[in-house]
Amino acid sequence: MRAAKQTSHRLLVALVAVLVAALVNVTNAFAVIETYQFTSPELEHRYHKLSQELRCPKCQNQTIADSNAPISKDLRELLHRRLESGASDQEILDDMVSRYGEFVRYRPDAAGVTLWLWLAPIGLLVLALLILVSVFRDRSAAPASLSEEQRRKIDALTRSGSVKP
Q1: Is 86 left (phi over 0), alpha (psi -120 to 50) or beta?
Q2: 114 pLDDT more than 90
Q3: pTM assigned to the model
């Protein structure tokens, strides 16, 4: 019985070791490993900065630096070529936006259509505050003045004891 427990324990340890090794290999397989030769360290720095700024058109929330999608690989190659040919960061971003739309940028400019996206939360907050103010203002409005007849009825009811003041 004891030998069976030791054997099952060893099998369990071996299984866990194999699973951990497989997990390490799987995560390494998904890592993006590309090396580009740059003519200057400044270009390499700009490449890394821009590749973190550009979103993969196929992936939902990955930069082209993080994505393994074929289009991201193509965009990284294009980015390298454009930097080496002397294009400025703004020229590269403008070119990418003209091809793929503002979606390709993680931080789109606050102009044009995207201005509405930047201002919408503020506008909704102001609208909600205006609604709250108008609701509370209506609730706190003073009641209308009582007519002379209504006052006499109230006085009569309070004197008779049916209504306590």
Answers
A1: left
A2: no
A3: 0.51
Q: What is the pLDDT of residue 29?
A: 47
- Separation of CA 61 from chain center: 9
**Residues contacting residue 58 through CB under 8 Å, at least 6 positions apart:** 67, 69, 71, 72
Query: Would you place residue 61 in the very low, low, confident or very high pLDDT band (cuts 50, 70, 90)?
Result: confident
What's the full length of the chain, in residues? 165
pLDDT of residue 145 exceeding 80:
no
- Mean pLDDT, the chain, rounded, equals 80
**The two three-digit tokens of residue 51, written as one number:** 């590749």
- Residue 29 phi/psi, 5° resolution? -70, -30
Return the structure tokens found at 45: 């720095």
Burial, 144: exposed, middle or buried (Cβ in 10 Å; 0-12, 13-18, 19+)?
Answer: exposed
Per DSSP, helices labelled H in the chain are 2-30, 41-53, 70-84, 89-100, 113-139, 148-160
Token pair 């991201």 is at which residue? 72
